[in-house]
Prior knowledge:
Order of helices and strands: EEEEEEEHE
Radius of gyration: 13 Å
Helix content: under 10%
Number of strands: 8
Largest sheet: 6 strands, mixed
Distance between the termini: 26 Å
Strand content: 35-45%
Amino acid sequence: MSKVDIKTKELVVGNDITPTTYRMACADGDYPAGTIVEFDSTTKKLKKATAAANMFGIVADDSKATSTNNEIIIYVTGRFDFKECIYPKVEGETKLDYQVRGKETGIFFAE
């Protein structure tokens, strides 16, 4: 677990829930800070989330994953500003869906 300074966005709000980070492999692509990611059990890598129910973590800082350097740092616990997060727009899903899933995993969203 390491401390990560977020320079591009103000994702973390408050210190009542300690933000925990992990470095994990992910699918190739660009991952801006605040991107909500899911774990793909087939490839054993992270990828951009496809729905609230799949939320695994939040990208800590702007990252680019390639075939030679595919690790990014993600938050797996903490309190975050939902307005700063990048998430899939799925018909029928609301902020409440992310709040409920987050509560199950240790990720909380502030108003």
